[in-house]
Amino acid sequence: MGMQHTPLLMSRIIDRGATLAPDVEIVTATASGTRRQTCAETRDRAHQLAHALADAGIRAGDPVGTFLWNGSQHLEAYHATAGMGAVLHTLNIRLSEHDLEYIINHAGDRLVIADADALPLLEKLAGRIPTVERVVVVPSEGFEDWSTTVAPAVDYEAFIAGQPTRYEWPELDENAPLGLCYTSGTTGNPKGVEYEHRSQYLHTMAICMTDSMALSATDTACGVVPMFHAMGWGVPWAALMLGCKQVMPHRFMDPARLLQLMVDEGVTISAGVPTIWQGVKAAYEADPDAYDTSQLQRLTCGGSAPPPSLIRWYWDTLDVEMIQGWGMTETSPLATLSRKVMQYSHRDLPPDRQFENVAKAGQLMPGLELDIFDEEFNRLPHDGETVGEILVRGPWICSEYYRNPQPGRFHGDWLITGDVGRIDADGYLIISDRSKDLVKSGGEWISSVDLENHIVALPGVAQACVVAQPHPRWDERPVALVILDEGADVPAERILTHCATQFAKWQLPDDVLYVKSIPLTSTGKMDKKTVRAGLDAEGYRLPDLREASAS
Amino acid sequence: MGMQHTPLLMSRIIDRGATLAPDVEIVTATASGTRRQTCAETRDRAHQLAHALADAGIRAGDPVGTFLWNGSQHLEAYHATAGMGAVLHTLNIRLSEHDLEYIINHAGDRLVIADADALPLLEKLAGRIPTVERVVVVPSEGFEDWSTTVAPAVDYEAFIAGQPTRYEWPELDENAPLGLCYTSGTTGNPKGVEYEHRSQYLHTMAICMTDSMALSATDTACGVVPMFHAMGWGVPWAALMLGCKQVMPHRFMDPARLLQLMVDEGVTISAGVPTIWQGVKAAYEADPDAYDTSQLQRLTCGGSAPPPSLIRWYWDTLDVEMIQGWGMTETSPLATLSRKVMQYSHRDLPPDRQFENVAKAGQLMPGLELDIFDEEFNRLPHDGETVGEILVRGPWICSEYYRNPQPGRFHGDWLITGDVGRIDADGYLIISDRSKDLVKSGGEWISSVDLENHIVALPGVAQACVVAQPHPRWDERPVALVILDEGADVPAERILTHCATQFAKWQLPDDVLYVKSIPLTSTGKMDKKTVRAGLDAEGYRLPDLREASAS
Prior knowledge:
Two copies of one chain form a homodimer.
Chain A: H1 16-20, E1 25-29, E2 34-38, H2 39-55, E3 63-67, H3 72-84, E4 87-90, H4 97-107, E5 111-115, H5 119-123, E6 134-138, E7 153-155, H6 156-160, E8 177-183, E9 191-196, H7 197-207, E10 220-223, H8 235-242, E11 245-248, H9 255-264, E12 269-272, H10 274-286, E13 298-301, H11 308-318, E14 321-327, E15 334-338, H12 351-358, E16 363-364, E17 369-373, E18 388-393, E19 410-411, E20 414-423, E21 429-433, E22 438-441, E23 444-447, H13 448-456, E24 461-471, E25 475-484, H14 492-500, E26 511-514, H15 528-538, H16 543-550
Parallel strand pairs in A: 1-11, 3-4, 3-5, 4-8, 5-6, 6-7, 10-11, 10-12, 12-13, 13-14, 25-26
Antiparallel strand pairs in A: 1-2, 8-9, 14-15, 15-16, 17-18, 18-20, 19-20, 20-21, 22-23, 24-25
């Protein structure tokens, strides 16, 4: 042994930023403006939170749920749990009641830290989440008088008050669990991805590389992507390590407000799904003179592929580079990424050719392996034409789902991503199709199969087929094709009411179409490609788009 | 286990650049010009070399010596040994015959790859390096007719000819040895630092971070620092991973030739010791109109601290950022580094204040721990004033020396670096001196480095070297050896008056000695041990002791 085998623990990097940049601010949006604290205060409060969690009986390895928007307390929860070795289970505030109940119980969260304004959603689970011993409530403007019966509750400030501002972070195994994030992208119940210290540590280093997001201590980072999505794409960790200024929008996601916040705080880099940047574009265009965007340099965009026209608009209009990234919860999430110029031979490309690169999903991050395969898992050529199933492996790729291994989602140690795409001669990944059965709405997945299974459970329904239809704002919205039993009468309202018992409102189909038959593939599966093509041929439009064009 | 525990092997990153950028060039200087091959050719030849080494009986874990300048074959040797799991033992061509014999035997090199022009140095060891079964000789222009009796020899091209261009890199333990580099910085025999795959992998990621060297695939990298010094500071690995153009100066280190090579090839980043950049500066000043340095962006400078006046010259004259780095063979080597602007609060600093940052050794790379300690290993305050012994630990820091552990060089798992310095409130490390080069006068320390930096800022002074001389009353007193620019006349009085503007009277040198040259160590640093020995051999006495004995 010639070199030190220092474990790659997040506790070794998360205090660094506050040490180097104690006075730099963490800014959180509030109902009436912003709330500000320094990096040093954030670190001190995180250490206090760790002590409070330990006093509440939380030990290394215990799951701690967060039901929080992006804000300073969420950052403190990241910091505290990572440091002490607890497991940060980020609960997606937008999940259905059913899924939320499932994942809290599946993870066995012992404590949940929740934003007061989100308490009503949690309240519905009263009596159904027995592992939760305590709820720590983060109050906010207008929500000072919160109450809950879901579990014994305590105010966040009271919880951490008086605790020491230094916690001696323990030495853990570098493969100890760090976080849990459930993905509802596939059939059946949500599946948990368990992040580990080593995997997120390496991911954090990767996103700070020049040819990646190029995060720097001089950046002002605004993570618009919720911190309950795949560790906020790693931005919180990197910002803690580097000592960046951070700007956190909380629940205030109105595009004009978001843009104003970014302008006011001098945000240099932000991260979010395409629908966010569509909205911000519209807000800007409504009043271009109102916003000085000169500080803004780059927008990391993932979750689904941003339309090239959107990338081009930011480039041409705001001189902002949209960095397209590809990945998923299972990939920590960053796997590939595209910059204007990220190869030596591209240095002198004219802008239009640079743009062709940016419109691709991009190059694989160093350390990962990715390839496209046919159905028998033979590797396919990188000719920019051949389309195959995308598989990926490496040190920040999921190896199995939490307490639900799902071996069918892996081929050896390769993760079967469920996406299909091409690889060109320059080594760029191009996503051909977001896996065809899923509906991507507002950055969230809606499982068509889950909806179908639920709909056909309704008496009188013979068959159901849910497909995505394009929507300018939400990217895609689900439409349900339904075959009724002979002589049955099941109105659309009843189908939607039935769905609402299990699914969140935004997951409900926008339309119910009664059909006589649904085309099948040669292997007897519903042929959704043909269904979508049929709707296209008919000139089908979603209800709210019909109204728009009529007006 | 939720995430893949993919071993951090160099084989996972070294082929990446050639895949992404097959046509980018690797340029090596030759007697009459340059020799060029592509990244893809370099990769193919590296895989061929691995096959040839395997055929020669080299197995994973076996040491392979290289006695090579920076050139494409040295890069191929890095690539091949790392991929196949052999241990790259970089032999310093400038070592003494005695040390060379010692380290080849101590490492037990089974095979040595040597540049033909360096063979005469190796030849002196004939009969004294019995473990070496074979020498693979890299011919070059003017050295086609090489011969050696040191071991059975084969031409490099013949050695790799006909081998397959794909070697299936084996799965190794990530802590398997990767390289051996001996350091001759201390008394006694050279000591070996054994790099491991994991340690260099993490170091490679670190130097590609934006707030570090910010290496990018779009860079043209010219490692002037020899690849037999601490893995060429990691530049070869990073360039292989990213797919940079690489420019390699081989033995042609004449400053004017070096500068011309950098200009001709559009080098954007280079790395070397201060004496190199002093020489390049002189070459530029001798004929400023001859060089278009517009492509050059940054020069990484380490090994010893560059004088602030030198940093400033590059900044003001060439608009080139000199990135000061601090580290040593034992630290892989990069530990701290300084950029113009590397904290959020420094974004709006005026240039003169930015410059103060660059003149420091800089900030610690994420993942490492560093602190200053007193003689009883108590941590000292970070007040920018208190000077202490610098200790460092982390995942790319040496844990013991190869087959010669040297526990006295460690305190627990902290490496005792042998450097002393301060840490300021911004977290910047400021190196005062090598602990053995500090001048101890009347119970106080005088930094030889501070005096040297101040003296070389005086017009007409080319180089300065301050060493301690024994004194019966004060213990030690400083003496300055000075090299003047050609034709300059800078009397001792002016040097001392200049020093008095910055230093207390008791810190001023007792004597100024004008010399024609200052001996350098094999790693290009001023060899103060030899300077002191030379003064001793001459019977040098300090002025007041001369007066005392005369009176």
